[in-house]
Design brief:
- By secondary structure, the protein is mainly alpha-helical.
- It has two domains: about 5-250, no CATH class; about 275-335, no CATH class.
- It contains twelve helices and six strands.
- The protein has helices at about 5-25, 25-30, 40-65, 95-105, 125-150, 150-180, 180-185, 210-225, 240-250, 290-295, 320-325, 345-350; strands spanning about 75-80, 85-90, 275-280, 280-285, 300, 330-335.
- The protein starts with a helix and ends with a helix.
């Protein structure tokens, strides 16, 4: 993509999805007893963008620039490494995208390495501020609930319950990662702390930030349903990875995110029917490609292209469903967090001949 695409098109969606999450009328439905409506969504959306996200994003972008996050329109830089190899160093308007990415819990990143990239997250201070930005709005909305319900104790009670669950998750993940992998010690690999290494499981961790900040970041980003990351969670220990997976499966009860994502819908007719897939005595809903083709729509909106389908679905991956829709002549608009691009590199190259 050119620089214009993230600066204009993607920025609008980042702000709109975050503001839509704040503007949902659930609280109004709780507190309004006499009114026949729950308020004007577009008024709430506009206020959230103008009075909340724009000022905070401006401050966040300026702070990021002061700490070394790049913000430019320069072309990519060609450099020669000490080994004599050619390296292409990416540039771009990163700081402005980073601010709303974190505040809106949109996640992803300007670079494929996400918040492990030094151009996005150059210092321990930026790492701390980015974690605070992820939680800032969703945690503050518990106070908003108390104010609107005219009972601040409700807001503090919800905040306390969420905080307790979050802190338990943090300490378990940190303890598991700090303990490391005992199987490595059994085969003679040194895992104790020294001048050359940290104690514990450093696999998948950003070496500038270490286990502590990576464990905290992983717990925060999963608790807020934000796909920003500064470490690879599938490299965590079994217990540490189990906690982050449990948080994801809990359905955003730990603060949660404010970013709204599209569902699988058709154009005029509305939402397409969902496939009911039985799995281990449970019934799960999944995308039903065949039901979409039965209509058939001109355009389908398909959420999260790289995702894995529910076990028992006709196809294992969501992108395979999109290929079926293409073959039937249906246009598809889909979403994808940039951090998921790694999992599709081979498929993109095989289908298009383009190496991403």
């Amino acid at each position: 993509m050119s620089y214009l695409v993230p600066m204009v098109a993607l920025t609008v969606q980042n702000f709109a999805s975050a503001a839509a999450g704040v503007a949902v009328a659930l609280v109004c439905g709780f507190v309004r007893q006499q009114a026949t409506t729950i308020g004007n969504f577009w008024v709430d959306l506009t206020r959230a963008v103008l009075y909340l996200f724009l000022p905070l994003s401006l401050l966040g972008a300026l702070f990021s620039c002061s700490q070394g996050v790049i913000q430019n329109l320069a072309p990519y830089t060609d450099a020669t490494t000490m080994e004599g190899n050619r390296q292409v160093i990416a540039q771009g308007p990163v700081a402005s995208q980073e601010a709303i990415k974190m505040l809106g819990t949109n996640g992803g990143g300007f670079f494929n390495a996400n918040s492990a990239h030094p151009f996005e997250n150059p210092t321990p201070l930026t790492n701390l501020v980015q974690m605070l930005m992820i939680f800032l709005i969703s945690a503050g909305l518990t106070y908003t609930l108390g104010r609107m319900a005219d009972d601040q104790r409700q807001g503090w009670a919800i905040f306390a319950a969420k905080s307790l669950l979050f802190l338990v998750g943090v300490f378990v993940v940190y303890a598991a990662e700090q303990a490391g992998n005992p199987n490595l010690a059994r085969v003679g690999i040194e895992t104790s702390a020294s001048d050359l290494q940290h104690l514990g499981n450093m696999e998948g961790k950003e070496v500038r930030l270490g286990i502590t900040m990576t464990s905290l970041f992983a717990t925060i980003t999963t608790a807020a349903s934000c796909s920003a990351a500064n470490g690879m969670q599938d490299s965590f220990t079994p217990l540490g990875g189990l906690v982050t997976l449990f948080i994801i499966q809990s359905g955003e009860v730990i603060f949660g995110g404010i970013c709204c994502r599209p569902s699988h819908v058709g154009p005029g007719p509305g939402r397409c029917p969902r496939r009911l897939v039985p799995y281990r005595d449970k019934i799960f809903e999944a995308m039903d490609t065949e039901a979409s083709l039965a209509r058939p729509p001109e355009i389908c909106l398909v959420e999260e292209l790289p995702h894995t389908n529910v076990p028992g679905s006709p196809r294992a991956k969501r992108w395979e469903d999109v290929l079926v829709l293409f073959e039937a002549g249906v246009d598809v608009i889909t979403t994808m967090n940039t951090q998921h691009l790694d999992s599709l590199n081979d498929q993109v190259r095989e289908i298009s001949g383009i190496q991403v």
